[in-house]
Amino acid sequence: MNLWYRRDDPDDSQPGSHALVIGVSHYRYLPDSPEDAPPSGAGETLGLANVTTPAISAWRFANWLTAADGFNQPTAPLASVRLLLSPSSAEIDETPALGGLDENTVATPTRDNVLDALFAWRQDCNRRRGNIAILYVAGHGIQLSKDDSLVLLHDFARARRAILDAAMDIGNIWRAMATPNAAARQYYFVDACRTRPGLFDAYLTTPAGVALDITKEGALDSAPIFYSASPRSLALGLPAEGTLFCQALLDCLKGNGAELDAAGEWVVGTGSLLRHLPATLERLAACHQATQTTVIGGQLRDAVLHRPREAPDVSLGIKVSPQEAAGHAHCTLADFNGETVYDQEPVPTEITLNVKAGLYALQLAVRDGDQPGASVLRPFMARPPSHREEIRL
Predict the structure, then answer these.
(1) 282-332: per-residue pLDDT in tens?
(2) What is the C-alpha to C-alpha distance for residues 40 and 34, in angstroms, rounded to an integer?
(3) From residue 22, how far is each of 106, 199, 342, 359 by CA, in Å?
(4) Where are the domains of the chain?
(5) Are 305 and 375 in contact (CB under 8 A)?
(6) Among 49-53, 82-86, 124-128, 145-149, which stretch is predicted with the lowest mean pLDDT?
(7) Which fold has domain 313-392?
(8) What's the rounded Cα separation, in Å, for the pair 125 and 135?
């Protein structure tokens, strides 16, 4: 299987970021709905059916990685993306590009194809310590214990196979990637449900078929695992928009999860995703009258994943009170480069602006006839995604 993306002129002497992105919506041996009979050749299906959001979510994440305004990591530029997808017909209808994928560069995420991609990805990641490893996988998921997380692949439920023969063991992969020569920074995004089917109560052991040998462990700088759902819960999504987790993740990566580092630059990393991704997902789920919570595990030492190429956007609200004063006030807002972004007299009691994140100086002056009256000068930091200032004169 060829790569979906490789840097045009990779410099093998320099660190790079290597991504493995997998999205499984259409399953060869699952019906389109739980009420339908499974296709020919199916074995134990666990009562599951095809879904309509994982593949488009993986597609969008991969496209963000390679976009001109997407992933940016100067210390380890994007070097490769391996992409495996099995989209549903509903996803192809919404995004026709998913129906014309080149099988030479975007393979179907079967057990064997994922194993091939996984070993090749690990080999690339482990060429030098300065590399960054990124794994994003979306599909049906199950959880058999508090320590595991399994994602089911395209040929899951094939007859005359062990139940989890085509399941990807995320916990095993995370542990196996911690070797002395491993990429020191690793990021795992697991976009799947974490339910436990009752059928597994009858089994003593149920090993997953897609796993890596675990060898001598090495120290990593950072290796967080971001699970899209809490244990025993579902991961939600919308057919035309992808999973809620992917929407929230991309929202954070595009700027709403950025924070200032010690050098005064906006960055997205382990720490900022810890603080912003759960809240972003919970807000998004609430908009759909649902509940979904991100759970974070792994090694949580802070490290930078992505540096937005420009300051993130901020929704800025300014409230002026009392209302009578606003009608006689002159308001100016300038960034700390001295550029004026708002200058108006009189002003409404509620001012809403879209600005770039950063330091600002807000000045509000009230006139008493032709004479100057009360005046307020307030500096503040506008942080994404939104900031609010209230001025009382």
Answers:
(1) 999 999 888 888 889 999 999 999 999 999 999 999 998 888 878 888 999
(2) 15
(3) 10, 26, 45, 40
(4) 5-306, 313-392
(5) no
(6) 145-149
(7) Immunoglobulin-like (2.60.40)
(8) 11
